[in-house]
Design goal:
By secondary structure, the protein is of the alpha+beta class. The protein has three helices and five strands; from the N terminus they run E-H-H-H-E-E-E-E. The protein has a five-stranded antiparallel β-sheet.
């Protein structure tokens, strides 16, 4: 774990099921996340992923990389281009700083339209000293 190191990318298929299930799981019942016709009436070509689902996927990306003992300390993200069904979001990360067992990672999630999410995640990895 050194500053400048890149995490391997994670490809996530953006399915209608993922979008709707994420909205329901996070109790976000806004129609633009589950009703295609309502989304179109509001100017969107289709339903789109909510920020809570994106936040969860960013957290998963980090904990999948750093392991089951990783503790998310701070997630600060900003949305950009929407995630629509049928697209693929590719998450990438670069370690910005390491302070003992705490790591700050710059995360970008991009799809065919551009950057869906950008931000930083601070994570503590209790067994960091044991990692190669």
């Amino acid at each position: 774990m050194t500053a400048g190191a890149e995490l391997p990318p994670l490809e996530i298929a953006v399915t209608r099921t993922l979008i709707v299930a994420g909205a329901i799981a996070s109790r976000d019942y806004q129609d633009v996340h589950h009703d295609a016709e309502s989304a179109r009436q509001k100017g969107s070509p289709d339903v789109f992923m909510n920020i809570l689902t994106t936040n969860g996927l960013v957290g998963r990306y980090i904990t999948d990389h750093f392991g089951p003992t990783a503790i998310l300390r701070k997630v600060a993200i900003r949305l950009g281009a929407p995630n629509y069904p049928g697209d693929t979001m590719v998450l990438t990360g670069t370690i910005e700083a390491v302070d003992g067992d705490t790591v700050t990672v710059r995360v970008v999630g991009a799809n065919a339209l551009g950057r869906h999410v950008t931000g930083t995640v601070t994570v503590t990895v209790p067994d960091a000293e044991a990692r190669p």
